[in-house]
């Protein structure tokens, strides 16, 4: 067991970070280099032919997801792992209109739990921002790149991937290809004896399944380690006899409690949902995302998803994509399934998501920066006055949609700590301040 | 040693096939399923959620490059290995004009060493063609897809990658950024004590270096095994103490004989050239290919290259790309560096390549289907009446450029055997017959 762990740990770390499961451990760490100090260009990662040993980022020894290497890795996932493309096709590019507003930099807000005001511009480095895009009334009013990212680059979306998996599921539900009230076992018989078997599709979509699932990193037998070993795309170590791949792993999960009562953020729900939508549609998550969204939204670039050793896309955290393309996802959500004059899916899809999930079940999870919110079809719904909702991924990834302000914000980031609770204090109020600024400006 | 080999073999096989080094071993095999029988869609590789065990293609056990799995793998390299993109950028797409000619299917030719004539159409399945494109006077006159490929897909270019590495080198030479007469050691001091140190850049470009290099697969200490282990993108097995990556491996090669006398096709020359052009340009091969060619030729898709464990692109065989984009490479070579009305590099570059290399040195290598030819800057020059030349990769990959007929043919294929000598008999005369047909038609 010990040797298996030693062999697999670096890969595990990657998968864990992608899926947000390293939140607790990362939070234990101390102080970090600031954004300028940890800029991957300044640190010279992977430069030179060959890069000198102290500038190499590779598996397995160097733990490519550790900070500050993380700040390079988030733009280079495919160079470290096998991936499957999310294709835009070879249709003509569709460009955004620009109406840049230099006044946004000076917008001020007070961080949650803080007293001293901060400017929008200051928040970007505080949050280790790699890319930030603000769309207002469909036009780009703000767009900046830092760290490893540029306008032609791609960045790990981390758990924002879940929201796309959830969106695809909701599309299939609204179109009648997937019954959200069905028991999972009726769609995936292989999951009959697992915790998922007795859950409904909707409970999986909203992460209210009751799973016997431990993320205690100090316990080498915790479920999270089994999950990570199963999901690794690398060949399994000699002697490994556990499940291979997401689908085999999901069958091993046991139930603990009653489904539908409590929201519990577990990436395995997204992988189960990926399986469900694949069975329902006959396409894997990457293929379905390509066919339904990416190839029809005027995407500028292909995206890609990491895969397990059997080629299964990581529906819970594997997507990397360009920032403006994530902006197009935000516009689709903002505008009820329409973008660039095309309707991609029925408006009912976003209506259901924006209505939110079970707020009582959500409250049980105790998210301090998201009080009063809910989780619906793998989107975070704030239930605030603007009807805002978001895709969120560890280390600061977000698509923040504010319908009242006709605004979408995309942030790619590489904050040293995984957990968004740390990042929310200087991002959520900043988003609200920009929304207020734009609404006031346009009056 | 034995256990290291067992652990690494499947990956090695992949790298070997990509680089064409499995030619000899594959030739030992017997009869194969024909093109229709081995069609990867018919065989159902990687279909289902999950694919049943007998339909899985993965590392390490199943040897993803073995025939007939090979026929799926050639379109899915990135799903099995880490890769680096060759970016097209986000510039507008440039489409080809079409002037399809259904008469081409009926063009007949006599296979080399054969007696019975064959039609062009018949040759496609005989050669396990995955995609075939004929450009004449800059327009598409023929375009078909089979097997794993379609018009939005990508296919392994195998050793055609070498020709792009050679093209980039020739561009740097003509532009004065690289001295083809310089000793390699003056550009890469790390290679001073290796076989390459005393060779000139030109000798590396033309593969006339004299290397003490064994490809005897029955000898577990043959150089080819060391090369493959070094190049594997997977974490090195416990206990491995050899070189890690292309750059470290190249330093271990020893000289045997006098440089410049004999052409000997060794992939390591391309990797050495990749290193040379990276040092000279400050960009790795994938980056340089993006910057100088891919982002400026109106490419429809990004390409990508496999990488070693340190992120070094495989300059000798790692490229995957769309077929029409390979057609653009052919047009650039045909039209002296111009495409879609843009000049990408000086005409002198293609003039030098098309003039060919040392025919006497080439004759020593004994290529029966290429008698009278030569190898220049990693392009195969036929020295025939049409001034034809080609990029070639194992299993039937080619960009065939015929200046007299103003024609470019691109073929992607997954012929069961690696060696092109087997494929040439039903492809080279077919290309010549189509050239004659088009010239006669246009008279």
TrEMBL record, chains A, B:
SUPFAM superfamilies: beta-lactamase/transpeptidase-like
Ranges of residues in domain Beta-lactamase-related: 132-417
One Pfam family this sequence matches: Beta-lactamase
PANTHER family for the chain: BETA-LACTAMASE-RELATED, BETA-LACTAMASE-RELATED DOMAIN-CONTAINING PROTEIN
Descriptive protein name: Beta-lactamase-related domain-containing protein
Protein's organism: Desulfobotulus alkaliphilus
């Amino acid at each position: 067991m010990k040797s298996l762990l030693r062999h697999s740990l670096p890969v595990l770390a990657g998968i864990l970070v992608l899926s947000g499961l390293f939140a607790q451990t990362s939070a234990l760490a101390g102080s970090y280099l600031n954004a300028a100090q940890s800029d991957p260009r300044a640190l010279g990662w992977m430069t030179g032919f060959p890069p000198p040993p102290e500038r190499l980022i590779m598996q397995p020894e160097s733990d490519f997801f550790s900070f500050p290497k993380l700040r390079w890795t988030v733009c280079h996932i495919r160079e470290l792992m096998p991936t499957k493309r999310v294709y835009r096709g070879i249709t003509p590019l569709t460009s955004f209109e620009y109406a840049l507003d230099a006044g946004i930099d000076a917008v001020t807000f007070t961080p949650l739990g803080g007293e001293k005001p901060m400017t929008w511009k200051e928040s970007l480095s505080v949050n280790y921002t790699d890319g930030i895009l603000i769309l207002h009334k469909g036009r780009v009013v703000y767009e900046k790149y830092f760290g490893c990212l540029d306008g032609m680059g791609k960045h790990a979306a981390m758990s924002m991937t879940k929201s796309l998996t959830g969106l695809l599921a909701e599309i299939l539900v609204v179109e009648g290809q997937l019954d959200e009230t069905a028991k999972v076992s009726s769609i995936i018989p292989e999951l009959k004896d697992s915790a998922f078997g007795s859950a409904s599709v909707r409970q999986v979509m909203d992460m209210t399944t009751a799973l016997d699932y431990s993320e205690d990193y100090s316990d080498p037998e915790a479920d999270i380690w089994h999950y990570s070993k199963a999901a690794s795309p690398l060949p399994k170590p000699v002697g490994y006899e556990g499940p291979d791949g997401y689908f085999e792993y999901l069958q091993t999960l046991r139930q603990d409690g009653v489904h539908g009562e409590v929201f519990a953020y577990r990436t395995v729900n997204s992988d189960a949902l990926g399986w469900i939508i694949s069975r329902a549609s006959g396409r894997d998550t990457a293929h379905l995302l390509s066919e339904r969204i990416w190839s029809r939204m005027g995407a500028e670039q292909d995206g890609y998803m990491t895969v397990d050793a059997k080629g299964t896309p990581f529906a819970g955290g594997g997507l990397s994509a360009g920032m403006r393309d994530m902006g197009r996802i935000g516009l689709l959500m903002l505008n009820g399934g329409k973008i660039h004059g095309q309707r991609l899916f029925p408006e009912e899809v976003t209506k259901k998501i924006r209505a939110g999930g079970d707020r009582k079940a959500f409250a049980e999870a105790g998210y301090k920066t998201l009080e009063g919110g809910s989780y619906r079809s793998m989107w975070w719904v704030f239930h605030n006055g603007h009807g805002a909702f978001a895709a969120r991924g560890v280390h600061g990834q977000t698509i923040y949609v504010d319908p009242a302000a006709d605004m979408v914000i995309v942030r790619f980031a590489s904050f040293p700590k995984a957990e968004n609770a740390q990042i929310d204090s200087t991002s959520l109020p900043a988003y609200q301040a920009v929304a207020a600024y734009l609404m006031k400006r346009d009056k």
